[in-house]
Design a protein that fits this description.
By secondary structure, this protein is of the alpha/beta class. It contains 9 helices and 6 strands, in the order H-H-H-H-E-E-H-E-H-E-H-E-H-E-H. It folds into 2 domains: about 5-50, RecR Domain 1 (Helicase, Ruva Protein, domain 3, Orthogonal Bundle), CATH 1.10.8; about 55-175, 3-Layer(aba) Sandwich (Dna Topoisomerase Vi A Subunit, Chain: A, domain 2), CATH 3.40.1360. Helix 1 (about 5-15) packs across helix 2 (about 25-35). The protein is globular.
């Protein structure tokens, strides 16, 4: 005996596969779609169905772009400084930096971070392409914008060493790290505190 109709249970099960979505949340989402008009569910289904066919990766920056585009507009636009590159782990990290409205350089998406425990080594990341691009575009500054995690720090250090070994003459910088506003010291993690100490300023 099924407690719920099979069609509804199937939607709950599929939604529950999403990261961060527990059983209760999946049930609420599925029930919402059931109660909503057909257009809501159909629109969601159509958007998901076209996800893989409508998105591809920029061959230079490895950012996500529309299927109809050849390169990322954040690389080809005339007001973008190709000699300034921010290196990020994932495509959505670009969105966070763009929302600041302060950055006018270009990006390079690594496709993750070095994490031996997850079986991700440097060879799985777009590091060789980055090194080649630094030469091709005569890049003057690279901003390492990986996450403030053990994996992010390891990746940043690896990239630094690769650039040094390749003898590429440029300025290498790292996003400033510190304690977020409203966070007490006792709740700050070790990496955050370390960067906060290293980046302390004279008053």
């Amino acid at each position: 005996m099924h407690l719920l109709p099979l069609a509804l249970q199937k939607v709950i099960d599929e939604l529950g596969r999403l990261p961060g979505v527990g059983v209760r949340t999946a049930e609420r989402y599925a029930y919402y779609l059931l109660r909503a008009n057909d257009r809501t569910a159909d629109g969601l289904a159509a958007a998901i169905a076209g996800l893989h066919s409508g998105v591809k990766t920029c061959p230079v920056t490895f950012a996500l772009i529309d299927e109809s585009e050849d390169f990322s507009a954040l690389y080809t636009a005339g007001d973008r400084d190709k000699q300034l590159v921010a290196v990020v782990e994932e495509p959505l990290d670009i969105v966070a930096l763009e929302r600041t409205g302060q950055y006018k350089g270009t990006y390079h998406v690594l496709g993750g971070a070095i994490s031996p425990i997850d079986g991700i080594g440097p060879e799985q990341l777009h590091i060789p392409e980055l090194l080649q691009r630094l030469k091709d575009d005569e890049v003057q500054e690279v901003i390492i914008a990986t996450n403030a995690s053990v994996e992010g720090e390891s990746t940043a250090l690896f990239i630094q060493r690769q650039i040094e070994q390749a003898k590429i003459d440029l300025t290498l910088t790292r996003l400033a790290r510190g304690i977020p506003v409203g966070v007490d010291l006792e709740y700050a993690d070790q990496i955050t505190l370390t960067h906060a100490l290293e980046g302390r300023r004279k008053l």
